Amino acid sequence: MKRERTTCEKARNICIVRTLAKLGHFPTKQSEKEAWFLSPFRSETQASFKVSKTKNRWFDHGEGIGGNVIDLVCRITKSTVKEALKILNEDAPSFSFQQQPIFKAKNENKIKVIESKELTHFALRDYLESRNIKLGTALRLCKEVHYTFKGKKYFAIGLQNDSGGWELRNKYQKNSSAPKDTTHIKNGNKKLIVTEGMFDMITLLEEYQNMENEYDFMILNSTAFIEKALVVIKAYKVIGLYLDNDFTGKKTARILMQQSSNCMDKSVLYKGYKDLNAWKQAMGH
User: Fold this and answer.
1) Mind listing the pLDDT tens digit for each residue in 209-247?
2) What is the spatial distance between Cα 39 and Cα 66, in angstroms, rounded to a whole number?
C-alpha cells in the first residue's frame, strides 16, 4: 500500500498540459498561470476546461468537476487508477511537472506551417531510408512541410489530418500543428485499416503495394481520438487494427473490438516489437 501511495504521489507531479498534448488536446489560449482547453470529455465550441499551471490541477467548468492528472487520465481513457499510472509512467521522466515559464509572446510556442510541397529534401529521404521506407511509398500519403516553431525554421515529413493540422516527423523531432485530429483517407472501400501513426500506415503500404484498391485508411494520430474511431468503424464491414504493442495500444484495440465484432487485432504480425515500423526496421526488408 505504501509503495502504491508513493507511485501515485510521483504521478501527480506529471504535467497536465503536456499529458493533454500527448492525448491530442491543445490549449485554445494560455497565460503564465493557466491554460484553457475545449473539454476533452464532450464537444463544445467555447473552452470551459481550465488547467492551473502553478498548481498542476484541472477544472471543467461545464461539469463542475476537477482534480489531478491521474483523475484526468482515468476519465479521458476510461481507465482504472492502476491503468492510468501505467499510461503516465510511459512518459514520466520527460513529463514531470515544473513551474511553467513565462510566455514572452502569445504565439511563440505555436507551430506555424509556411509551406507544404512534394517530398524531395535529401535529409528527409535519408530519414525515410533509415526507417526502411521508400520515397515513392511515403509520397502516397505525405508531404514535405516547412514550418516555424519558437522563432526557428524547420522542415519535416508531414501528414495532414482531417481538420487541416499536420503530424510532423524528422530525424530529430516529433511535432504536430493544431488543430489535432485523425486522418481518415477514403478510397471508396468497405474495409478499413486503423493505425496509430503515419509510419505504421506507410509501413503497411510498403509491404502491400495495392492496399488502396481494397481498404480505406484511418490514422488516429493519438489514441485519445478513440471516440471518433468508434463512430467511423460503424461504416465498415472489416476493420484491421494495427496498433502499438504497448499498454495504450492494447487497451485501444480492446475497446474497439468490444464495440464492433468486425474489428480484428493484427498486432500478432509484429509481436515482440513496439509497432509496425520497428518490426520492419528489425526485419530489414
Assistant:
1) 889 999 999 999 988 888 899 999 999 999 999 999 998
2) 12
Compute and round to an integer the Cα radius of gyration of the chain. 19
Q: Please tell me the distance from the alpha carbon of residue 258 to that of residue 18, in angstroms, as a whole number.
A: 29
What are the cell numbers at 223? 489514441
SS3 (DSSP) at 257: helix
Ranking 8-17, 200-209, 272-281 by mean pLDDT, the lowest is 8-17
What stretches of 78-179 show up as alpha helix (H) in DSSP? Answer: 81-89, 92-95, 122-130, 135-138
Q: What domains appear along the chain, each with residue ranges and CATH number? A: 2-95 (3.90.580.10), 112-176 (no CATH), 183-283 (3.40.1360.10)
Which residues are 11's β-sheet partners? none
Distances in Å between the alpha carbon of 107 and those of 111, 127, 163?
Answer: 8, 29, 20
d(CA 98, CA 153): 27
Q: Match 513565462 to its residue by C-alpha cell.
A: 102
**Coil, strand, or helix at residue 282?**
helix
Q: How far apart are CA 281 and CA 285, in angstroms?
A: 7
pTM above 0.90, yes or no: no
Written as one string, the DSSP assignment of 136-163 is HHHTTT-EEEEEEETTEEEEEEEEE-TT
Residues 188, 221, 140, 273, CA torsion sign = negative
Strands 216-219 and 183-185: antiparallel
- Count Cβ atoms below 10 Å from residue 204 Cβ, excluding itself: 22
- 258 burial (CB, 10 Å; 0-12 / 13-18 / 19+) is exposed
Position 164: which residue type?
Answer: G
List CB contacts of 140: < 8 A, sequence separation 6 or more: 202, 205, 212
Q: What is the pLDDT of residues 128-143, one digit of tens each?
A: 999 999 999 999 999 9
